[in-house]
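Lab meeting, action items carried over

1. Structure of the four-component assembly. Owner: GW. Status: complete.
Input record:
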Amino acid sequence: MTSDVKEIFSSGSPPAPAALAAKVRTLAPSMTRSMQLVAEAVAGDPAGCAALTVTGLAERTGTSEATVVRTARLLGYPGYRDLRLALAGLAAHQESGRAPAVTADIAVDDPIADVVAKLAYDEQQTLADTAAGLDTVQLGAAVAAASTARRIDIYGVGASSLVGQDLAQKLLRIGLIAHAHMDPHLAVTNAVQLRSGDVAIAITHSGCTGDVIEPLRVAFDRGATTIAITGRPDGPVSQYADHVLTTSTARESELRPAAMSSRTSQLLVVDCLFIGVAQRTYETAAPALAASYEALAHRHTPRTR
Amino acid sequence: MTSDVKEIFSSGSPPAPAALAAKVRTLAPSMTRSMQLVAEAVAGDPAGCAALTVTGLAERTGTSEATVVRTARLLGYPGYRDLRLALAGLAAHQESGRAPAVTADIAVDDPIADVVAKLAYDEQQTLADTAAGLDTVQLGAAVAAASTARRIDIYGVGASSLVGQDLAQKLLRIGLIAHAHMDPHLAVTNAVQLRSGDVAIAITHSGCTGDVIEPLRVAFDRGATTIAITGRPDGPVSQYADHVLTTSTARESELRPAAMSSRTSQLLVVDCLFIGVAQRTYETAAPALAASYEALAHRHTPRTR
DNA sequence: CCGGAGGTTGAAAATATCTTTCAGATGTGA
DNA sequence: TCACATCTGAAAGATATTTTCAACCTCCGG
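Predicted assembly:
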């Protein structure tokens, strides 16, 4: 009698995905008393049971190992081992269910783990937005200009200054002549030197940072190819830019200033620009990169392992 | 020697939830060849590996059971059995959210639009990995130390230098005394001034940049609270760090140097640190932030529209 | 009330799986 | 090249899982 039921279920039903609790309820009537104990424990606390061995679960339910195995079989698994694996999967699923609402703003009293999650989420969002909003035609043109430039001058102040330095560092590494100007006055002084065939890049989130616009204007007037990386393509900086690369503007909160997400966005744009240039100048870029690695290796103390 | 590493990791890291792929990448460099084979298999096909026994996985990777167990240990599990359970959980996770197909490496002849998409995807991945792999306990401790520090010194060279400057800029904005040292010699000279109650932060992807380790060591010896932000928590820099914050190590390619993704990762960590500190010092941080916005507004030319 | 057939149960044996040990293999620096 | 340290896998040892089997219920029918 009961053996029929066993066969029907154990053969008919696949290893069962997440519908475990339901299955237990369906099969419960056809189970013997001690098997029901096991099934209940499993349905009630999958995560907890996943941590137990056969013996452990047998003790916890006041039954024997044999019964546990029998129950696992009835539930459609080849043995307890597989039931346990399924249980672990189930537990992981439940885990993900109660993630903190990462879309919410970062609050003053958020636990540190939430801060990490929210921040990571926000920055991922910023990246996606930036990638989606980036004009590849403009980017292509900027890449083309930079690849063949005699020299590349980069302007940025404040947080954008770091982005500019980052770009300059990388371009230098692949053998291009790039310089990030930090002092606005010197930037203007140097911009005067530019001429056709040179490239000037201005980085400003607000699109209206005078200290950055001014050198770009001078470069523009001197005939250099000018590029603006800004979150406000309608800002004054675009007036003097041959190519405008738009960064995204994520929402900001009191604790999370705009500078933070704009930096993420700017860096992505700058990276794209860099890789584009590296592709175009691959012949010279590759060995130059290799050489700079080589040089760096000597600055490192030997590893522990 | 290797046993030290084992201990650091197996004790420090909890069974790890979904950050397995990230963890594998972080730890891969400190693994032996055959262990890397196992780690790769596990990271590459969690679901498939979850279905295998030790012996099965050993055969599949062409190694021995012993190696499989060793790898499981290194990844932070008590043994293979537990790794397998975690794998089952991971597989269940993946089941729900199917990954997009931009996982390919950036090639020399990729059109610019692909570069943008791949780069954005990679950086998003890096962020997710970093967030998943970040030890919130260590982060919390670092935040606590920084919040009450008399002064905060930050060391970084090369690309990491920019990250350090970014952090310093932000901390300064909320009224803390922070300084990013760029010159290694000056950094050491200044580190001597530190004492208990001060905080020193070293940023190095490789974990073995002498120019950065040296000032941290001095700070450590002087009794300051030391923090390391590194992609190699088993590297020499950790010796002198009270708290180690691990950045993730994304795969790199010829065109996409490690510096690029490590920077993304480092910035996320730094942002988390900053926001944590801002939360803790909200009373003073909020007005300080507001004031710095105010000051910046005057540096902007009026918008066109 | 008794005996036994059919079913249930757990102790213990048998097997599979996982872990540890150890000696040989391999690499590395002097 | 040798000495040293590390890495590796075969096999022994320990655990966990599965199977076996006999005791034990439970429910009938005599």
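2. GW to write a short summary for the group page. Key points so far: Residues 1-2, 32-35, 58, 63-67, 70, 81 of chain B lie near DNA strand D (CB under 10 Å from a C1'). The first helix of chain B runs from residue 2 to 12.
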